[in-house]
Design brief:
By secondary structure, the chain is of the alpha+beta class. It is built from six helices and seven strands. The strands form two sheets. Strands 2-4-5-7-6 form a five-stranded mixed sheet, covered by helices on one side. The chain has a two-stranded antiparallel ribbon with strand order 1-3.
C-alpha cells in the first residue's frame, strides 16, 4: 500500500531525526568513543604512546585477566596513555633498545584512579601489596609511570626476571638470579630507561617513572570519567586473598 500524503512528511522527519542522532549533524559522522577519549586525554595532558612512537608495542595487562587480580579491570578499548613528556622519554629508550635489536612492550601506563582504588580494595587494603590511595595516588594515575618488558624485533616477549605483578624477591630491580642472559637484558633495559630520564622502582623491575613529575600533585591526577571512559571496578569477595604488589 502506498503511503498517504500526510504520512510521507512524518516518515521523512523520523528518518532525518535518526540520521541526525547517529551522525551528530546530517552528513557529518559522529566521533567514536575512542576519538572522543583521545581528544579529552589531550586536554588533560595525556597522549596515546603510539602517537609519539608507533614502534612501541603495548598489551595492557589489566585489560586481560592475566594480572595479579586475576580479572579484567580495563575496558577492551582502553588506550595506552602517558604524559607527552614521559612518552617522548620512552621513545628515546625505544630507539636506544632498537640499536640492540630489542624493543618495548608496555604492560601498563596511565591507570585510572578508579582502578587504583579497586586494586587497593582487592588486596584487602594490605599496604604490603598495594599503596593506599588515601596517602597519595600512584604515579600511574598521572600518566607518568610505565610498566613494561622487553621484546625482540618480531615483538616476542623475552624471558625476564619474573612475569608482571609477581610479588617475589626476584621481582627486584636488583635481580641477581642465576640466568646471565636475563641479568644482561635487565641491565640493558635499565640503561635505556635511565638514559632517557626515567627512573626504576627498586621492588619491581618492570616499573619506571618520570622524576620530572615528582612530587606528584593532585592537579596531575586524571580520573577515567574525565576521559569519557566508563569503569565498573570489581569488589573484593571475602574469599579473595591479596596477591598484588605495592605500587
Amino acid at each position: 500500500m502506498l503511503p498517504s500524503p500526510l504520512f510521507v512528511p512524518a516518515f521523512l522527519l523520523v528518518v532525518t531525526f535518526v540520521l541526525a542522532c547517529g551522525e551528530g549533524t546530517l552528513g557529518t559522522p559522529a566521533p567514536d568513543l575512542r576519538t572522543t577519549t583521545l581528544a579529552l586525554a589531550r586536554r588533560h595532558g595525556l597522549i596515546e604512546v603510539t602517537a609519539i612512537n608507533p614502534r612501541i608495542r603495548s598489551r595492557l595487562r589489566y585489560a586481560t585477566a592475566s594480572n595479579a587480580a586475576g580479572r579484567v579491570l580495563y575496558p577492551p578499548d582502553m588506550p595506552c596513555l602517558l604524559r607527552e613528556a614521559t612518552a617522548r622519554k620512552l621513545s628515546h629508550a625505544q630507539v636506544f633498545l632498537e640499536e640492540h635489536g630489542l624493543g618495548i612492550l608496555i604492560w601498563d601506563a596511565y591507570r585510572p584512579p578508579e582502578i587504583q582504588q579497586a586494586l587497593w580494595e582487592l588486596s584487602g587494603r594490605a599496604e604490603n601489596f598495594v599503596s593506599d590511595p588515601a596517602l597519595g595516588w600512584s604515579a600511574h594515575c598521572t600518566g607518568t609511570a610505565i610498566d613494561l618488558t622487553l621484546v625482540d624485533h618480531t615483538g616476542r616477549a623475552l624471558p625476564m626476571p619474573t612475569d608482571f605483578d609477581v610479588l617475589s624477591k626476584h621481582a627486584s630491580a636488583l635481580y641477581t638470579g642465576d640466568d646471565p642472559e636475563i641479568r644482561r637484558r635487565l641491565r640493558l633495559l635499565q640503561k635505556a630507561m635511565r638514559s632517557a630520564g626515567l627512573s626504576p622502582y627498586i621492588r619491581e623491575w618492570w616499573h619506571f617513572s618520570d622524576p620530572d613529575f615528582q612530587p606528584l600533585g593532585a592537579e596531575h591526577v586524571v580520573f577515567a570519567g574525565n576521559l569519557g571512559i566508563h569503569m565498573n571496578p570489581p569488589r573484593r569477595t571475602r574469599s579473595a586473598t591479596p596477591s598484588l604488589p605495592a605500587r
